[in-house]
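Record 1 of the preview.
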Amino acid sequence: MKEQNATLNNALWLLGLVVAFPLALIVISYGVKTVPGLLGLEYAQTFADNAQIFADATKTTLLLTVTSGILGIILGTVTGIAKLSGFPPFRWIASFYVWVFRGTPLIVQILFAFNATPILFPSVVDVPDFDFYAPMVALALNQGAYNAEVIRASIQAIPRGQTEAARSLGLSGVQAMWLVILPQAVRVSIPPLVNNIVSLLKDTSLATVVGTLELANAIDRFKSQTFLVIPSYLTSASIYLFLTTIMTFFTNELERRFKTKSR
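->
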């Protein structure tokens, strides 16, 4: 019965996560249309006319966060394991990757991905929405470097006796890592990984430097066209705060579930 309830709760959590952000886009669009009017602001109609632009830009911000976040977790897991590999070339490559992407500014990485990649690989110029994919790749690589250190530290936090016990049962090194060590390391790594994802949502604003029409870029264009500086920045901050609040709610719930399972 408890297992059935846990499965149902997990399904409801996942459903809530899937539904939450599309609903958030509707709330953002409606809020931008109506809140200035309810407050009796003289520029209310200007915001109402641009509400859909804000919603579309927020959608791009969320897509950047989700795609680069998933890729960053995959890349970070592979790199974190490689840093602990007994095969020196794997350790060297993983350590070099982490050193480069943690040691250089994210904005430089985005600019390099957008401006240098077409020079190195001219065929990417023909890729549709390149101004989306270039910062997405840069964000994913940056996230992967930070996640790699989280995964590495989480694996090292698992007592060595766990590995020895798994090997004594006849499991290979790969099987021991996949079946015994990683599931425990995931529970340890959830809090810092969650923090990285929330930070990633805000870091997507740097994509504006290459012209990606995400939230920060849309707000900046709106400000330039209307000269409503303070209202523009307050709107931007409110939308980011709204999104991070939703994300923090679900990630805190995820963390709580993993803590409950580990008891």
